[in-house]
Amino acid sequence: MRIWSLGSGSKGNALLVECGDTRVLVDAGFPARTLSTRLTAIGVAPGSVSACVMTHEHIDHVRGAAGAAKRWGWSLHATPGTAGGYGELADAGVAHFEAGATLSIGRAELTTVRTSHDASDPIGLVVTDRASGARAAIVYDLGVVTAEVRESVRDVDVLVIEANHDEGMLRGGPYPRYLQNRIASRTGHLSNRAAAALCADVAHGALNHVVLAHLSETNNDHGLATQTVSRALGRTRFTGRVSTAAQHGPVGPFCAKHSRTTARVEQLTLF
Ligand SMILES: [Zn+2]
Ligand SMILES: [Zn+2]
Q1: Tens digits of per-residue pLDDT, 61-71?
Q2: If you measure from the C-alpha of residue 58 to the centroid of ligand 2, how many angstroms do you get, rounded to a whole number?
Q3: What's the confidence (pLDDT) of residue 261?
């Protein structure tokens, strides 16, 4: 399984997940033209993408979905709250699913998990490649890590997790107080510290990659976010890499190599 971030942050989000020849876009928060440019830049024809699954109705996640689906024949998938929360999606033929449901798209199996965010019916995802067994979690736009989210990201090969802001930079930054409070709330965005705590909790020796996503351009710094999370991971068995997703261009591919079961089987054989 390979994953690219096509762009991540408050100005737009889109992630491409590839399982063999199955290509699924998670969010389409850029205009179709930008999606086309960025997919082409990573060598992917937009018409080769089968589906787009949307996490929630905020414009930075859905902006280009209806246009792109029409142009390239993608199927669209969202919770009823997400589909009903953005005008253009009303007659875009969105297939509905409930938070917690598992979707099957080609070789990809996508299990959804409810997230805590100020949207109608937001979700995160765990994608499993049915052929290789590789798994990737994609969780951003959440104010807190619920027990449900924590459990769902425990056994993955790649973890894409929000590291939106540094708490000090947010409080000392230019945003008005009400906006600072909204971001820091239980239905806002995840801080570097909270992302680091989650990573330290769920990291295991076979976790290939941690990708920090949805970084604020105002209240965060890529070096600081990486340092905060890497320091926490340094106290675990994690030997993989930590990267950050950029707002203005593609980053990747991040390869999910399935070695967890193998490691477990070897361990079982030894004893
Ligand atoms: Zn967002
Ligand atoms: Zn949002």
Answers
A1: 999 999 999 99
A2: 5
A3: 53
Q: In Å, how far are 7, 30, 71, 72 from 47, measured between CA atoms?
A: 19, 16, 8, 5
Q: Residue 266: how many CB atoms within 10 A of its CB?
A: 10
Q: Dig out the tokens for 240 from the structure.
A: 């993989």
- Residue 8 CA to ligand 1 center (angstroms) comes to 8
CA 68 to centroid of ligand 1, rounded, Å:
19
Cα–Cα–Cα angle for 132, 133, 139, rounded to 5 degrees: 120
CB-CB neighbours of 47 under 10 Å: 12
How far is the C-alpha of 209 from the C-alpha of 123, rounded, in Å? 21
Structural contact between residues 89 and 53, judged by C-beta atoms closer than 8 angstroms: no
- What separation in Å is there between the alpha carbon of 162 and the centre of ligand 1? 10
Structural domains in the chain, CATH included, are 2-270 (3.60.15.10)
Confidence band for 96, pLDDT divided at 50, 70 and 90: very high
Measured in Å, residue 47 CA sits from the centre of ligand 1 at 25
Measure the CA–CA gap between 211 and 241, rounded to whole angstroms: 8
Q: Tell me: the pLDDT tens digits for 10-53?
A: 999 999 999 999 999 999 999 999 999 999 999 999 999 999 99
